[in-house]
Specification:
Order of helices and strands: HH
Number of domains: 1
Structural class: mainly alpha
Largest sheet: none
Number of strands: 0
Helix content: over 70%
Distance between the termini: 16 Å
Strand content: under 5%
Radius of gyration: 14 Å
Length: 65
């Protein structure tokens, strides 16, 4: 992504996705299903999204300097 505004939108999308995954995990934890394969998959996705968020934020900082 070359444009800061499109990167900001992408970051916002990733933040929303991360929150959604967090909510899904919270629901599973309430039902004592936080060690199931589904929960493990959500945790893995959440880490991937977090890594992408970090990368995008770093890229955006570089663009704005």
């Amino acid at each position: 992504m070359n444009h800061p505004e499109s990167l900001k939108r992408h970051i916002h999308h990733l933040e929303d996705w991360h929150k959604s995954l967090e909510s899904e995990l919270s629901i599973l934890e309430q039902h004592h299903q936080n060690d199931t394969p589904v929960a493990q998959m959500i945790k893995k996705k959440k880490l991937i999204v977090k890594d992408e968020l970090t990368r995008c934020r770093h890229t955006l900082e570089g663009m704005l300097q």
